[in-house]
């Protein structure tokens, strides 16, 4: 593995990271947010930090509800409200799937308000101004999340620290998924603009217009607004720089992990056909027709529409987004403002030229690597292989280096286009610092956000002095940029604007400084991007004495060995299906996701093994269904490996046995027998899988035979006397007993971190419980790792959460029927 840097910095260079600009003086007396402020729609009040230095106003509506007749229309003016609206809490997040922590993305990357609605076009403001006439520079933040998730309430977007540095900070919600990007002929016809889709961009413009009209009342300068976004938010900022409808609404743009000059406003080099309105209409019209037409779709509930979401993207429509970035630059129609753009080491997957999802698990052979490089670079393949030569065994490190270099050079190419065709400067960075100093997690996609925003750190993670120093430095650049359009200032390492060469600001643990891509790489990538974009840039050698960074691939740090991984910890769930199949799901983006061996979204690797542990073959998984019937007589175990986490979870295929499951219905159970490689439904009179079923009382006395029809045994007639049910297989003679619970509590893991579901056995069935229900009341108390009680937990209709207690590890539930207390450990 190549080292991250080939040469350590000289002492003076290393110390440059410690040079932090003086933050704007903290204002000890921000104006009183309890006094009503008149904004579009009515009067609002807010709240202030404990020291009174920063006032904040959360969940301010900037447009009307987008449900019903407003669905798939340009954002409408906000509906006025009566009286004074208290804006101290975030409003709902826009409609999306339930969120939950996954992979590197802990709770600070997720919405704190997980109430979802189409009436969610709101924004939040943080200000440290003492009066409304200060004219502080404004930073307008557009969240990420693939345009399918996220929102302004994610803790990493908190604006307090930027407000303390003299910036008025605004974070917005906007429409997501199909709600934000559906195109259609019928939608074109009814639109005043004559085009459809791009509602996300129109929402951002509506919010910017709100800032123009109202931000001066919070001490902000409406004529000095900088827009900033990361990932999908960066793509939306990208599109705002192209849109003539956004002209004059901002003076600078920060495109964090998402800038590109290529066609279609996407990073994928294979997508060279622009996503135009015309070539997306067919799929949009088909979606509308398949769901009953526009009237039917608008009559649906928000959840019903979300359940039939189809992927659409921003479209070059000639009106909202007239062209690609490059075409707009060449034509001089782009909103010509200073820009920052850059990437992190974990962005290598964006527009990667070598797919490493499967390869990271199975390895990448020399031949496979050469084949992938040849496919990616065509006529330039020989030159590419000379710069990134293969090794004999595993070429994953090589593939990572190629993908990461392309990510960096994409950012540099965007700035190079800007330097050639516009009048304002562009700045490029590359970020390598591991999140919270965790070298195993590294600098993953989105991990740089909290550093640029001044150190919005998760207090439960081990952020240290170096983290804060980097955050102070990066936020110093950002504050300068927002104020003046120039990143540089006293005490900061010099960050040069793009001049056509291949220089960028490297943000690393051993120094923040301006460096260059080695000439041989820079020359190669210049040819590559010229071929992609149809440009003719000349290679410009770095100046004499420049520092080069040979490789931006970080040192590989192995995680410590841990105990065996359960499917819950690893995020993989198995369910036995009908016949010789097993269903497989992975926990990601807050839900159990369907997986596949060749799906681009949630790819997995699935292998079959015999009873001696020998590998039999790879198995294909399609839409979460793994059919192992072809090897049913040999297979003993199936291993599924997640390409997200690298975790492998095993499923042992039963060879015989009887399975008994309580149902949700009163006094019933389901019974299955393993036969012919699958769980088969049984019965007392079925010729295929016959069984005998008998009920017994608490003393072991037989009460009666029970009838079982299609695997369902109903014992309601004897539920008050039966204590046990015995099932006897007429195939094997095996007997399985089911003890009917007298009084107990059953727990299930909830869909979100810290959630749990709780039921009590009563009247012969599992009953929903609650802390205040008159029918089945319980007492629920959260406890910490030492067993201390932390406080009561509300349980409504069997659902509760310990998320409000940061130190909680579980919940103790006491039945008020029996007085029995049962504890349940919960993984947040």
Strand order of the largest sheet: 3-4-8-10-9-11-12-13-14-15-16
Instruction: Give the integer mean of the pLDDT values.
Output: 87
Radius of gyration: 30 Å
**Poorly predicted ranges:** 1-29, 263-273
What is the number of beta strands?
42
Number of helical stretches of at least 4 residues: 18
Bin the helical content: 10-25%
Sheet-strand content, in percent, reads: 25-35%
Distance between the termini: 35 Å
Sheet bearing the most strands, described?
A: 11 strands, mixed
Structural class: alpha+beta
Shape category: globular
Structural description of this entry:
With 828 residues, this protein is an alpha+beta fold. The chain is built from 18 helices and 42 strands. The strands form nine sheets. It has an eleven-stranded mixed sheet, with helices on both faces. Strands 17, 18, 19, 22 and 23 form a five-stranded antiparallel sheet that branches. Strands 26, 27, 28, 31 and 32 form a five-stranded antiparallel sheet that branches. The radius of gyration is 30 Å and the shape is globular.
